[in-house]
Design goal:
This protein is α/β, with parallel strands linked by helices and 371 residues long. 38% of the residues lie in helices and 15% in strands. Helix 3 packs antiparallel against helix 11 and helix 9 crosses helix 11. It comes from Candidatus Filomicrobium marinum.
Length: 371
């Protein structure tokens, strides 16, 4: 900014001189103040590692390096894990691949970083990873205090109960008087207590200080049921001697929405990640899969044509090609395909869709309108 030079102030000899100099001095101070605060603001932005000045910064960086850097957990069955040969798999991993296909045209244009709970938000807010694929539930404090923004829900988790099928219990409402194995000090223990108290039901908590001890107590018959988040219960059941003898009851007594997060301040990248997820869900709603996506290019349905970018270009506003959603679906699949192969009937976890069904089927998954 141009700042006028301030010369020597002459001695005032009249009231008019005094007023004139006061006006001049006020104007000069105002200009200096504006220049100072502009310089200060630019300095703060430049000094902040996570500051985003250009709304397209992340996409520009992704295109320049040729791949998306995705932060994931390395040891969570069904969500994100890496085997001895360095091959990644899981729902969150597949979402990152779909994001790479949408942004760069190839699901393989991706680099996975195994991040710990203690460092994941710092890495994201500083721009060292482009997206945190999941592993944390979407809460007010995390969305407002850590320099990150949660995009939407990839998986609806929650505290549930698992019982032996031989007990013929089909709902958590049938657990009155039961003993329940829970983890001491965990949020789930308080949620279990609240569930029984609000319904006037009696129960006996059997608390242990480690999850391994909780599982062992359940297997030894120390309790009628075990409580934990659905994803954790399914992972534990998979290792039981006879997994089929145990059922996760359909009642979820808490809300634990898990989904991808991005750095605050980059609205274009936020939109890309959000609408990639929406496109996967919308594809399932419309019956578009990885197997029929190419054939669906000739569909006459306007909703399908909009999704696949046929004579529509909704990618342009995000800096993407017109076929961004088509590439994600073709190369990775729709939401239902991702769920089934990683968590559902085609996976070792064999989870029911539950709240992760489409809205039309009684679940909570639905896409915002792509129009």
């Amino acid at each position: 900014m141009h700042v006028p030079r301030v010369g020597a102030v002459r001695v005032c000899r009249s009231a008019g001189d005094v007023l004139g100099n006061l006006h001049l001095t006020s104007w000069v101070l105002a200009q200096l103040s504006r220049a100072f605060y502009a310089a200060l603001t630019l300095g703060v932005l430049a000094a902040s590692p996570g500051a985003v000045v250009n709304a397209a910064t992340t996409l520009d960086a992704v295109k320049a390096r040729g791949h998306v850097v995705c932060g994931v957990r390395a040891d969570v069955v069904g969500f994100s894990q890496v085997d001895a040969r360095g091959r990644w798999s899981g729902l969150e991993v597949d979402f990152c691949r779909a994001l790479a296909a949408a942004a760069l045209g190839s699901k393989d244009a991706i680099e996975f970083w195994a991040v710990s709970n203690s460092e994941r938000y710092r890495l994201l807010s500083r721009g060292e990873i482009d997206v945190l694929a999941g592993g944390a539930d979407f809460t007010l404090s995390r969305d407002t205090e850590l320099g990150v923004r949660f995009v939407d829900t990839l998986f609806h988790d929650g505290t549930m109960f698992m019982v032996r099928r031989s007990q013929n219990i089909f709902s958590a409402l049938e657990l009155s008087g039961a003993s329940v194995c829970v983890l001491e000090g965990a949020r789930g223990k308080a949620e279990v207590a609240e569930f029984f108290e609000m319904r006037g039901m009696r129960y006996q908590p059997v608390a242990s200080n480690s999850w391994t001890d909780v599982v062992n107590a359940y297997l030894s018959g120390s309790c009628n049921a075990i409580a934990g988040e659905m994803s954790i219960l399914a992972a534990a059941r998979m290792k039981f001697p006879v997994p089929q003898e145990h059922a996760i009851l359909p009642d979820s007594i808490s809300k634990e929405p898990i989904g991808p997060a991005v750095r605050q301040g980059d609205e274009r990248w936020f939109s890309i990640v959000r609408w990639t997820l929406m496109a996967l869900i919308r594809a399932e709603e419309l019956g578009v899969t990885s197997k029929n996506a190419e054939a669906k290019l000739s569909s006459t349905r306007p909703s399908v044509r909009r999704l696949l970018g046929v004579n529509f270009n909704f990618g342009q506003a995000m800096g993407l090609n017109a076929d961004w959603a088509y590439q994600a679906i073709l190369q990775v699949g729709n939401y239902g395909e991702l769920f089934e192969r990683n968590l559902g009937s085609r996976s070792p976890l064999r989870l029911e869709r539950g709240l992760n069904k489409l809205w039309a089927e009684g679940g909570l998954m639905y896409a915002m309108p792509l129009r």
